[in-house]
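Incident log, support desk, overnight shift.

02:14 A customer reports that sequence design results differ from what the structure should imply. Their input is reproduced verbatim below. On-call engineer (initials T.W.) acknowledged and began investigating.
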């Protein structure tokens, strides 16, 4: 209604140390102890391990040096996917307005639930209690007027916390925080700002947009200027179909022979294409994602002539991208490889004449059926034997 002040009705719910928390939930011997998920590269760390300085994407050797008492466990992606689905069921039981943004976090709009469910803070309290009771995991919730500030609030409240930021205090709260709390400020941007003695969000807010764009570029400058004033008009979007599907795997520090990388890539494409077919989606753009030993990243993409969900078609494109990136991999070392298929449509596979491309749709369907009935490990490529498919990480919840 016109004239009424905006209310803090957006929740950002974020599971705490998700992979490590699932491991501690499922194995009582791990509770209260430092846990590292992943050996070569840290995929996740419990808060007990984080207290020793262990961080996600850190090399396993460094992590074990920082926390020699840590228990290292292999990732179990099936368990994490099941836990994610269970948590999202709680989200959807809370409000129909849920926007998932990763496997372990989502935005919820509870603005229309006041008469039936109470105030947003009451809803947030019940949400946290329900996730713990039904899924056995701790979850942190931030409540604010905008999506950006709700996410900031949950970050400040971690672990296992709840923080509400009333509209009348939001700028006081926001401006005291370090610049790294601004969405999109990573190491490079933070370094640029701190070199100019800009260390808090409040200092960013007091700068003119023109100055920020001169330092950071037009897009980043305008973005940070808006966020520093909590200007974020984005609504919680429900029902938006994914624009891409992908998976990734940490491979640890090398050396990694080319056949090993190709086998890893094949396993990832198998997983992604299977998920695409299950969802009735086909895509045109294949993207290869690489992370190097210096933590830098690159992506390489190829757009197909027509949408496809066929494993062979997608794998051929991904292999070509990998081959083109081999000089970079040799020079800089690789610690993570990922593949994603974008420009998705909902029409499924486009029919081709037999002469256009060999038809492997029957093989894909047969393999999908076997895996559906007997599990994803029931049939695999010979090159993947002994490697385990469980190391591939879905980029978004199913």
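02:41 Re-run completed on a clean worker. Output:
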């Amino acid at each position: 209604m016109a004239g009424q002040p905006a209310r803090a009705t957006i929740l950002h719910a974020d599971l705490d140390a998700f992979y490590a928390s699932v491991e501690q939930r499922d194995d009582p011997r791990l509770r209260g102890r430092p846990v590292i998920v992943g050996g070569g590269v840290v995929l996740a760390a419990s808060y007990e391990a984080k207290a020793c300085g262990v961080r996600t994407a850190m090399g396993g050797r460094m992590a074990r040096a920082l926390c020699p008492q840590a228990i290292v466990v292999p990732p179990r992606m099936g368990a994490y996917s099941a836990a994610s689905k269970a948590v999202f069921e709680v989200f959807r039981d809370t409000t129909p307005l849920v926007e998932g943004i990763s496997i372990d976090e989502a935005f919820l709009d509870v603005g229309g639930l006041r008469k039936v469910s109470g105030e947003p803070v009451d809803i947030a309290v019940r949400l946290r209690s329900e996730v713990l009771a039904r899924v056995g995991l701790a979850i942190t919730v931030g409540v604010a007027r905008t999506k950006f500030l709700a996410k900031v609030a949950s970050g400040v409240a971690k672990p296992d916390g709840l923080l509400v930021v009333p509209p009348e205090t939001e700028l006081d709260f926001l401006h005291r925080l370090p610049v790294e709390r601004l969405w999109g400020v990573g190491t490079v941007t933070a370094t640029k700002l701190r070199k100019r003695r800009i260390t808090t969000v409040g200092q960013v807010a007091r700068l003119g947009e023109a100055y920020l764009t001169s330092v950071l570029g037009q897009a980043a400058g305008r973005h940070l200027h808006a966020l520093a004033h909590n200007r974020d008009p984005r609504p919680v979007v429900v029902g938006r179909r994914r624009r891409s599907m992908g998976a990734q795997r940490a491979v640890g520090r090398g050396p990694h022979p080319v056949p090993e990388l190709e086998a890893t890539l094949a396993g990832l494409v198998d997983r992604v294409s299977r998920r695409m077919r299950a969802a009735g989606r086909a895509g045109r753009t294949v993207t290869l994602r690489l992370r190097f030993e210096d933590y830098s990243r690159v992506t390489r993409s190829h757009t197909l002539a027509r949408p496809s969900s066929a494993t062979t078609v997608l794998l051929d494109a991904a292999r070509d991208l990998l081959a083109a990136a081999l000089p970079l991999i040799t020079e800089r070392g690789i610690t993570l490889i990922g593949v994603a298929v974008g420009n998705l449509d909902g029409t499924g596979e486009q029919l081709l004449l037999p002469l256009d491309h060999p038809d492997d749709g029957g093989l894909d369907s047969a393999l999908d059926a076997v895996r559906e009935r007997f599990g994803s490990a029931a049939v695999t490529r010979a090159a993947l034997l002994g490697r385990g498919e469980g190391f591939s990480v879905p980029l978004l919840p199913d």
